[in-house]
Amino acid sequence: MRKDIDRGILTVANVLTAGECQEYIDWSEGQGYETAPVSLPEGAVLRPDIRNNARVMVDTPDRAQQLWARISAHVPRVLDGRRAVGLNERLRFYRYGPGQRFAPHTDGCHRRPNGEESLLTLFSTRARLCWRVGSRC
Fold first, then answer.
1. Segment 43-53, tens digit of pLDDT
2. Stated pTM of the model
3. Which of its termini does the chain have fewer beta carbons within 10 Å around, N or C?
4. Are 122 and 113 in contact (CB under 8 A)?
5. Which residues lie below 8 Å from residue 71, measured CB to CB, with a gap of 6+?
6. Cα(7)–Cα(132) distance, integer angstroms
7. pLDDT tens, 89-104?
């Protein structure tokens, strides 16, 4: 069920079961977490003053399509004059320990070779899925 929280922020509850969430966690752990860099115009750099969490980043079109099949009915069909066509296949999993953080920021966008680009960030926790409008493109 979709719930609009604030301008540009919405949630969808119960997209994954507890078992499916655990499967994603186990799968991401098997990929191998690494220190997450920050993307800057000059490229990816480690900046622990901005971000000091761990991340797994993997392109997995099959998993993206499976998630899209579950959430597409809840996604804004048109945003900024552009039509939603699916999820970005570049999934990122984040792990935070005590004292770790990622300072406030604007997410970048993912551009495909065919010109499609992401406009929303899909953020998942065990409790819900959330979109934030405002990726930097």
1. 899 999 999 99
2. 0.78
3. N
4. no
5. 12, 15, 87, 122, 129
6. 9
7. 889 888 888 898 888 8
Specify the amino acid at residue 71.
I
In contact, 50 and 38? CB cutoff 8 Å: yes
State the residue for tokens 């945003």.
79
